[in-house]
Amino acid sequence: MNENGKKRREWVKTAAIIFLSVMLVLTFFSNTIMNYSLPEVATQYVESGTITAKIRGSGVVESGNPYNVEVSESRKVSQVAVKVGDQVEKDAVLMYLEDAESTELKEAKTQLDSLKAEYDRAIVAADTSANIVNRVENGNVTSTESKVAQIDAYNSRIDALQNNIDAYNNRIAEIDAALGKLGDGSTDTSAEQQAVNYAQGELTKATSWIETANQKLEAAKGVLEAVNSAVQGAQDNVAACQKAYEDANAKHVALITRQNSLNKKVEDGGTLTEAEQNELTLLEGSISAAAQEVTAAQEALGNAQVALENANASVETDRADAQKKINEAQAEYDNALTAKTTWEGKLADAQRNLANKQAGVSGGGEREALNNEKADLTLSLNKATTEKTDVEKELTDLLAGFTKEVDLSALLTKIADQEKLVKELTDKSVGATITAPVAGTVTTLNVVAGESTAPGTPVAVLQPAGKGFSLSFSVTNEQAKRLSVGDVADLVNAWRYDDLKVTLANIKPDTSEPGQKKLLTFDVDGDVTAGQTLNVSVGQKSANYDLIVPNSAIREDNNGKFILIVESKPGPLNTRYIATRVDVEVLASDDTQSAISAALYGYEFVITTSTKPVEAGKQVRLAEN
Amino acid sequence: MKKIVLGITGGISFLVFLVLLLVSNHLANSQMTQTAAERWSRDGNVSQVSCFFSVGSGITEDEIIEFEHTVDGVLTEASVVSESENPGARLWADAYSADGQVTLSNDKTSLTASAIGIGGDFFLFHPLTLLNGAYFSGNDLMKDYCVIDEDAAWQLFGSNDVAGMTVFIGGVPHIVTGVVHRPDGHLAEAAGLDSTVVYVSYQTLTELGESHGINHYEIVMPNPVTGFACNYVREKLGAEEKEVEVVENTTRYSTLSRLRLITEFGTRSMNGKAIIYPYWENMARGVADILMVLTLFGILFLLYPVGLAVVFFCIWWRHKGWTMKDVWHKLQDFGERRMEKLREKRRAEKAHKAMEAEDAESEKIQEEIPAEQEQSMEESRPVSIEEEFQAGDAPEEIRRKKRRFGQRRRKD
User: Fold this and answer.
1) How far are the Cα atoms of A28, A54, A514, A585 from residue B142, in angstroms, in the given order?
2) CA max distance for chain B
3) Dihedral, B397, B403, B408, B412 alpha carbons, nearest 10
4) What residue of B is the nearest CA neighbor of A59?
5) Which of B325, B341, B381, B90 is nearest to B219 (CA)?
6) What angle, rounded to 10 degrees, do the helices at A366-428 and A130-137 form?
7) Which three-class secondary structure state does DSSP give residue A178?
8) pLDDT higher for B108 or B390?
9) Alpha-carbon distance B127 to nearest alpha carbon in chain A (angstroms)
10) SS3 for A472?
11) Which chain A residues have a beta carbon less than 8 Å from that of B91?
12) Distances in Å between the alpha carbon of A238 and those of A299, A302, A530?
């Protein structure tokens, strides 16, 4: 029992010693052990510097000034000698054509025939002289200089004749002037002439005055006439009424007489026939009607007499007025007549004066000589004029001849050209080729062997050496916002190219995705070829920032973006490093770095990568380097 | 002896359970692609949800953008607003990606690798170990970035330190922003990480590579009530049930999920959807299977000691040398003794005061003391309880066993 207890105590002692020593070791190495369990972090200083956001893109260089190789014939291609991208020299063969008479050759031949026909027609139609035809056909066409010289000669002849004519005309005019001077004498009759003219004018005036006065007189007389005729009308009426009254009265009396005679017959005891009885009965009525008629006629007569009296009374004043006016007009007319007579006398005097003056002129023998010279000159003038007309006609003929000559020779030239074309085409129809018109690079081939060329459609497109190029690619709207026209782009692998300048030429919506993308087009100057792909980067100017951290340092959670910085805390044995969270706002980023705004001094260590996830506030271990 | 063996095995079994628990929790937490929610918010209440689309679903970038535009609205409706002081803080972040293939080349060599075309904050969900440089984001201004793995870096450049270098993808220069370590191990290789993987922008993959279309979408967003985020995403993006698989990453490794997975044993391997899982989902599913097994074993290892403890308890209960009545009596006794002590104390004080008082009083006190002393003497004796038991009908044999058992227990 005692043994047992002793053994147990030994064991306990050993265990305690082991336990304590392990604890001691762990205590000493606790830091080291803990350190290895901590996440190891790589850090970097927060820096200041520049951020440049660049937009990169790739595009294919396209030709700015392509050269289209076209052929005028539609021919079958037998072989294409070049490939796209080949550099060709000027006149290098691009394609071989199959032997065939092209449609163009046929057309050219037809046209040649029609031209020849036209030539013949021109000769016949214009009645061209054989001389001209020969000359043209032999090629002895009058040279332009010779034509001009001939025309000039004619023109100078015409000019000379014209000068002569002008000289003759001048001399005749002089002679006429001299004759005029001689004929006129030296007396001045202008005053007399003036007097005559004045008298004449006054006479004319007076004559016209008589006319007006006469008219006025006539008018006044007309008025008096009218007044008189009114009175006359009234008198006529009275007379008529008087006559009617007398007639009615006579009728009445006759009827009464008849009645009386009938009545008397009855009184005398005679018997009346039935007709007489009837008549007597009727007479009774007729007599009373006739009595009425008489009364009416008497009344009418009375009225007419009253009217006549009225007319006479009113007419009295009118007639006086009219008479007065007639008198005035008569006086005026008389005055006018007197004036006329006076001026007629004056005119006769003036004319006589003038005639007297003109009568005193002198004549001479000089006039005879002048008249003779004038006759000679007129003769010469006529001759010169005729000659000039002839020369002018000759010139017109010459010009017409020239025109015909030119027309014919032009037609002949056309025929010659067409013949040449036909010959060329005929030549071409065997072993023809298409050659490069300029030196450059083949960018497109539109036909392959076996296909036919089409006139007006390019068979190949060449990029002439040393001409401008363009480049385009599309970017997002966001990216396009950062660019502006005129920005110079850098080439991503610039060492491959010498002196290549790429400039942003325009920004427009991309038609394939109009709402979302923009198409950037660049001008490319330098030694490139079409079809080559260029990678460019273009962007704003770089901006300076105080706080710049690597992109890998930026972290994010639902509290926003943050970075973890390392804070050191000195301990008794060693320094401990604590990861501390700092909230940041990212101002700008480029491919590797971001500019931030945060509550930092600018010399902190920021954690970029770690071996394990790092939490804010936890201890970390710095990487060895 | 048998009891000792049983006890030891029970203890070991419990230890094994603890180890399994630790291992499985560690395994679950080490899945970085499943724990974006924890990284996004320290306070919890956010959830990470992943969608996997079938090849024929034909989901487009525009549909994703349309979905993104609705998220803010639904969060405002659920009165979730950002409380951060940082003006740039976002409530949610998302990423989409497409599988495909690209050919990278530089002046020296070229390499065809499987590629993931990313949009949005892909690397927020997939914090791969960076060996050099930084990640890039689908929201960056330029889309010509790429992250390559160390294999690709070695083949193209012969170095890992290549951040900022240029590689050509389809003839267009791309900038390598970072080099990452490709997860290795049996699980990773089986999941699809057996060859080089490069990460490029979705635009690069579609325009310059060979894309299979967008087939993964991930979002980390506030989750005000359980299942809110997951249901919302399922409703908006997962309408075509055959075409889409929606997974809530945040809770996929919880104990409840693991237990549910056990119940799905057998049916889990069945697949009626034409979905090709990306490597990270394959790995996550692999880990889920492992966790399921670990959990199963953990339960078994826990069951054994628990069962053992229950049995022991029952046995001990059955053979206990006392009844509830005893406990009651003892407690009564204990209470009385406390009372007596208090009374005595008071009396002692009184006595002290009465030291100068008359003898008549002191005599009276001395009469009571022997009676009390007698009683306390009886209590202090260990056999006193047994003696009391003797008053009961229990036979002598049982009483002895009980006593022995009680003594052993006291020793232990």
Assistant:
1) 53, 8, 19, 20
2) 123
3) 150
4) B172
5) B90
6) 40
7) helix
8) B108
9) 9
10) strand
11) 558
12) 11, 8, 133
Spell out which residues of chain B touch residue A54, defining contact as CB-CB under 8 Å: 142
* Contact (Cβ atoms closer than 8 angstroms) between residue B12 and residue B185: no
Neighbours of A265 (CB within 10 A): 14
Q: Which residues of A touch B127 (CB under 8 A)?
A: 613
- pLDDT for B358 equals 65
Q: How far is CA A561 from each of CA A43, A611, B90, B219, B364, rounded to the nearest angstrom? A: 18, 21, 9, 17, 88
- At A380 the three-state DSSP class reads helix
Residues B39, A561: C-beta atoms closer than 8 Å = no
Identity of the residue in A58, A552, A559 whose CB atom sits nearest the CB atom of B134: A552
A136 phi, psi to nearest 5 deg: -65, -45
- A-chain CB neighbours of B142 within 8 Å are 54-56, 479, 591
Q: Do B86 and A608 touch (CB under 8 A)?
A: no
pLDDT tens digits along B256-266:
999 998 898 88
Distance CA B179, CA A320 (A): 146
Q: What single letter denotes the amino acid at residue A258?
A: R
Sheet holding A67-69, edge to edge: A67-69, A460-464, A440-445, A87-88
- pLDDT, tens digit (0-9, with 9 covering 90-100), for B320-361: 888 888 899 999 999 999 999 999 999 999 988 888 776 665
Examine the pLDDT at B148 and tell me if it is beyond 70. yes
Which helix (H) or strand (E) covers residue B245, if one does?
Answer: strand B244-248
CA distance A424 to chain B (A): 49
Q: B307-334 burial string, b = 16+ CB within 10 Å, else e?
A: ebeeeeeeeeeeeebeeeeeeeeeeeee
- Yes or no, beta carbons of A585 and B127 under 8 Å apart: no
Beta carbons of A347 and A198 less than 8 angstroms apart: no
Report pLDDT digits (tens) over B361-404.
Answer: 565 656 555 555 545 554 444 444 444 444 444 555 555 655 55
**Which among B224, B253, B233 has a CA at the least distance from the CA of B46?**
B224
Contact partners, residue A517, CB within 8 Å, separation at least 6: A474, A475, A476, A477, A509, A510
Q: Which residues of A touch B88 (CB under 8 A)?
A: 560-561, 585-586
Q: What is the mean pLDDT of residues A159-164?
A: 90
> What is the 3-state secondary structure of A282-320?
HHHHHHHHHHHHHHHHHHHHHHHHHHHHHHHHHHHHHHH
Percent of residues, chain B, with pLDDT higher than 90: 43
A331-339: long-range pairs with CB below 8 Å, 24+:
A332/A213, A332/A216, A332/A217, A333/A210, A333/A213, A333/A214, A333/A216, A333/A217, A335/A213, A336/A206, A336/A209, A336/A210, A336/A212, A336/A213, A337/A210, A339/A206, A339/A209
| Residue A207 predicted with pLDDT over 90 | no
The helix or strand, by DSSP H or E, that contains position A517, with its residue range, turns out to be strand A517-525
**Which of B242, B267, B280, B281 lies closest to B55 in space, CA to CA?**
B242
Neighbours of A86 (CB within 10 A): 16
- Give B56's DSSP letter: G
Q: Report which of B219, B214, B227, B234 is spatially closest to residue B275, judged by C-alpha positions.
A: B214
Q: What is the ipTM of this complex?
A: 0.72
Structure tokens at A151: 């025309």
Look up residue A466 and give its amino acid. G
> At A471, is the secondary structure helix, strand, or coil?
strand
Q: Tokens in use for A170? A: 């001048």
**The residue to which tokens 């006016």 are assigned:** A325
Q: Which residues 43-72 of chain B have a CB within 8 Å of chain A? A: 46
Q: Are strands B172-180 and B145-149 parallel, antiparallel or unpaired?
A: parallel
Helices (H) and strands (E) counted in chain A, each on its own, are 8, 22
